[in-house]
Design brief:
The protein contains 14 helices and 15 strands. It is an alpha+beta fold and 508 residues long. It is elongated and about 110 Å long. Strands 5-4-3-6-2-1-7-8 form an 8-stranded mixed sheet. It has a 5-stranded mixed sheet with strand order 11-12-15-13-14, with helices on both faces. Strands 9-10 form a two-stranded antiparallel ribbon. The longest helix is centred in the C-terminal third of the chain and has 28 residues. It has 4 domains: 207 residues, 2-Layer Sandwich (Heat Shock Protein 90); 128 residues, Ribosomal Protein S5, domain 2; 74 residues; 44 residues, no CATH class. Helix 10 packs antiparallel against helix 11. It starts with 8 loop residues before the first helix and ends in an 8-residue tail after the last helix.
Length: 508
């Protein structure tokens, strides 16, 4: 075991290689800040309403500062805590940032990464400076491939101490020489990203349902913690809120808006009744896919931090597009649901599969409501689909049990007429067009399947035969019935067994 080396390239995998999106650096540092604030509140160092997380963007100086007034880190713990990798003291069931990886997330996007921190009752602060440029050089050097992570880090950071007030407690992350191509100093993109991903409150000025959501969740035993997070840019400091709105665009061309008329809470439970998550679902008219990408789709959250994005739960819908018609959040509370290292989903634990199973049921109900709302709006299409029900039942019965050529021809003609009527129906919106296409395709499939149907149910069950072979066998069976009458069944059964590979000797 003493010969095992964790090489320097692992460091690259744990930083830039870990995340596909540069903006995750904000999420990583914000979640650590939120944990520090929670600790400060528990220790009575800070009132929750006085807590703050501030992100200062300075594109001209190529600098970013992320600061919080949480507990900070004591001087005698700072170096080991901030330089160690994967050695966090945090607990996965309590804290958001518990892996000890995310604090180095910015190394690939700046030339120098600095941490400044001070804990209450200490008269000193600690400054740790990591030379990201030097780190990059060491990682690409070909002459020392066997250098360990520890050795590399030891060459690129140094520690400074400075005087500080005993009353101070804070943590700062300072990025200098920010990569211009990363977009990390792009104000609008940063605000959009943080608003969606960070544990910020609902905007009371544009989302009246926010207060009701918090109230209903709290009544169910779930406290959705949010934090005062702001972005400073130039002379302006903007408090951030989740982007949800009471009214939102669904069709830009038609300037068509939809709105939330009510909120439904859904408990996601284990088989033993324990709660995995609670979701709020916005009840709308389902007029179409939501145009605003910052609010469309059901979204996973734990610790009120988004897991994945608005498309992560596409997979729980049989038709993924319908997640884009939905609006809501799934607040995960169970300790058995653990975000993966990338925080783009959860670890594949048994609890995760139960969560997905239950969310599939939620998605199925949303899909049903979308279809019902669409058919209600598209009256002509709805009426034509209602007319086809009897013909569809006849077609299904013929396929399952067999039918003669005259009845089959009659049903086929009715299906073709129904298909034409559905195709010519006037629809009023995107959802109407979608269900029109579905109905057309389903009728088309029935027409095709009916063509291969014979008068004998037993033949129709033989999946290995093509249409021509089934026709020949139908003709043979018809002759047998004409010649043997009631004695034909045993011979037909024997022939079916033979074609099915279950042949037994036939005895007349």
């Amino acid at each position: 075991m003493s010969n095992i080396i964790i090489g320097k390239y692992t460091l690259e995998s744990l930083t830039t290689g870990m995340y596909a999106d540069p903006y995750v650096v904000f999420r990583e540092y914000i979640q650590n800040a939120a944990d520090a604030i929670d600790n400060a509140v528990r220790q009575n160092l800070l009132k929750k309403d006085a807590a703050e997380i501030v992100i200062r963007l300075s594109p001209a100086e190529r600098s970013i500062v992320i600061s919080d007034n949480g507990t900070g880190i004591p001087a005698d713990e700072a170096e080991q805590t901030l330089i160690s990798i994967g050695n966090s003291k945090k607990a996965s069931e309590l804290d958001r940032g518990f892996r000890g990886i995310g604090r180095l997330a910015a190394l690939g996007y700046c030339s120098k990464l600095t941490f400044e921190t001070s804990a209450v009752s200490e008269n000193i602060g600690t400054r740790i400076i990591i030379d990201s440029s030097r780190l990059s050089q060491l990682l690409t050097a070909k002459d020392d491939r066997e250098v360990t992570i520890t050795e590399v880090l030891g060459r690129v950071y140094f520690v400074e101490r400075y005087s500080e007030s005993r009353a101070s407690h804070y943590f700062k992350v300072i990025l200098d020489g920010v990569d211009d191509t990363s977009g990390l100093n792009d104000y609008e993109n940063v605000v959009s990203y943080i608003s969606q991903n960070a544990p910020v409150p609902y905007d009371p000025s544009s989302f009246a349902w926010g207060k009701e959501i918090v109230r209903r969740l709290y009544a169910e035993g779930m406290d959705v913690n949010s934090y005062n997070i702001s972005v400073s840019f130039g002379n302006t400091t903007t408090p951030l809120y989740k982007p949800y709105k009471d009214r939102f665009l669904v069709d830009k061309g038609k300037n068509l808006f939809d709105a939330i008329s009510d909120i439904e809470l859904v408990k996601i439970q284990q088989h033993d009744g324990s709660v995995l998550a609670i979701a709020w679902l916005g009840k709308t008219n389902y007029l179409g896919s939501i145009y605003d990408k910052t609010i469309k789709g059901l979204r996973l959250r734990k610790g009120n931090i988004q897991i994945g994005d608005g498309q992560t739960l596409n997979t729980v819908f049989k038709d993924a597009r319908f997640n884009g018609w939905s609006i809501g959040e799934v607040f995960v509370s169970s300790a058995y649901l653990i975000p993966n290292a990338r925080r783009d989903n959860f670890e594949k634990t048994p609890a995760y599969f139960v969560l997905i199973e239950q969310l599939q049921k939620v998605a199925a109900e949303i899909t049903r409501e979308i279809r019902a709302a669409s058919l209600k709006r598209n009256r002509e299409l709805s009426e034509e689909l209602e007319k086809t029900k009897a013909t569809v039942r006849d077609a299904v019965d013929a396929i399952e049990n067999g039918t003669d050529i005259i009845a089959k021809s009659r049903i086929s003609q009715k299906l073709s007429s129904a298909q034409k009527a559905v195709s010519n129906s006037v629809v009023t919106d995107e959802s109407g067009i979608y269900y029109q296409e579905i109905a057309f395709d389903e009728l088309d499939m029935l027409i095709g399947t009916l063509k291969g149907t014979t008068a004998f149910k037993a033949i129709n069950t033989l999946k290995t035969l093509n249409k021509t072979e089934k026709k020949i066998l139908e003709h043979v069976f018809s002759v047998i019935v004409d010649q043997l009458g009631s004695d034909a069944d045993r011979l037909i059964d024997a022939l079916i067994d033979d074609f099915s590979g279950n042949r037994e000797p036939y005895s007349p």
